[in-house]
Amino acid sequence: MKISSNSSTITGFILLGFPCPRKGQVLLFVLFSVVYLLILMGNGSIICAVHRDQRLHTPMYILLANFSFLEICYVTSTVPNMLVNFLSDTKVISFSGCFLQFYFFFSLGSTECFFLAVMAFDRYLAICRPLHYPTLMTGHLCTNLIVSCWVLGFLWFLIPIIIISQMSFCGSRIIDHFLCDPGPLLALTCSRAPVIELTSSTLSSLLLFIPFLFIMVSYALVLRAVLRVPSTAGQRKAFSTCGSHLAVVSLFYGSVMVMYVNPTSEHKAGMQKLVTLFYSVITPLINPVIYSLRNKDMKHAIKKLLGR
User: Fold this and answer.
1) Helix H segments across 90-231?
2) pLDDT value, residue 10
């Protein structure tokens, strides 16, 4: 990686984060430390509850436990470095650190897209094919789907990230963001790279819209099946089962689609930070609440875990 200016004094990029006076930075440090701990506790509680309660050893809850572990990893790819930056005077992140964060943040985000699609597929089988569900969604298939999500997620953006990391960067090397994001990084390259920009945009679009369309089709079929159920109680139970997942899908996709269909579009820096903060930090904070409040089995398992 080549740097064309001030390479003798700065050995990486400068992440501006959320510029404010020192007292404000300390307050943000405390706030995000609490949020990070709550995310670890909330998602960790779901993992422990699924592990300890034998009744939750089903594909739906195994997928949920893996999703919670993914959320912990996803937040950990950004928040610890953000916390360090709040108390740092230089706010410098090394080149290797920047691109490692870039890779893990996008790989984990890609994995989340695939997981949400697989969870929708599981609900489709459970509601539309209930008699065949135990033979279709076996433990072996569930494991294969989980592994496939992780492998695909970590391969999806690998080549573009490697290529961007080998490009030359000019100018101030200041990234007006709290993480290493493709838009600000591409803006710092010495020359435009339309092929890379197009590749990143295409991969982002495919990653977002293919799983999203799959989820929408799955739930359209689920809705059709539920409306055919004669019992109102049966309809309510089916909607309750799917409602939490649809809420998580809406929160995640509603914000992430704004940002990455065109990574070089002129988003205002403040809005870009807020939207990224929403899907990368706030959504993982809310997800355990959504899943536990709308699911009686999960509420019971968590109460049992807490000794209530």
Assistant:
1) 95-128, 133-136, 139-156, 158-165, 182-187, 194-227
2) 43
